[in-house]
Amino acid sequence: MIEGADGTRLWAASSGAGPDLALAHGGPGLWDYLEPLATELEPYATVHRWDQRGGGRSDPSGPFTVDTFVRDMDAVRAAAGASRWIAGGHSWGAVLALLYALRHADRTLGVLYIAGNGLEWSRWRSLHRAEMERRLGPARWARVNSAGDEREANRLRWSIDYVTEQIGAPQVERMLDQGFSVNRECNRALNAELDAHAAELFAGIDDIAAPVLIVQGAADPRPVAACDELAERLPSVARAIIEGAGHFPWVERPREFRQVVTRWLAELG
After folding, report:
1. Which of 2, 91, 220, 239 has CA atoms 20 to 30 A from the CA of 132?
2. Rounded CA gap, 238 and 196, in Å?
3. Model pTM above 0.70
4. CATH number of 2-132+182-268
């Protein structure tokens, strides 16, 4: 356990060798599920993971604000003894990594942006919802939105993030078997802030000097085009859209994902 921005206790883990790389998990309101990705990248980087406040093994307390989560991320960096690192993350964690780079340019070597939601997710949320409904079908979609078993609802939601449900099944069960609950308060609070203040939060995006790598799966139910504006506005950006992959490209196309990321890490030096 380490101490977060305001004394909140955060569970954290580090492994690997090489340049320091943060891996922030998605959500908001989830917990770290990125150990398999960290294992994949350990030969190339020292990977730092943590349960964000409100989830998993970390303290459940707020406040659940962008500023607090960025400060917690910097507390992880300080606890790891890294003066500078690559800010990375998956899904919401990719957005958090980008926000970190905006606030702490002097501590950011680069940004590894995996399957993030772009700069204005509120524009794309309805398309994501429609695609989820299409993939699940009417009967299963109704079960997701009923007031029944949360475990089963999460199983259905998460299963369609993969290019096929068969590929995703063991990954989903691993998440469920960790036994943690989604922090809905955290999820609502951060999404509301991002929706209401997107323009303000991302105001400096055109001036980010650090190189950014955007990695997406072509079969992600979240629209790939949600990241188009981000890619257009960043001064130093590489983008890889991996065919045959959904929201978790390192699971579905590990060789292609590894090649893209390790090549970019090597170019960072």
Report:
1. 239
2. 28
3. yes
4. 3.40.50.1820
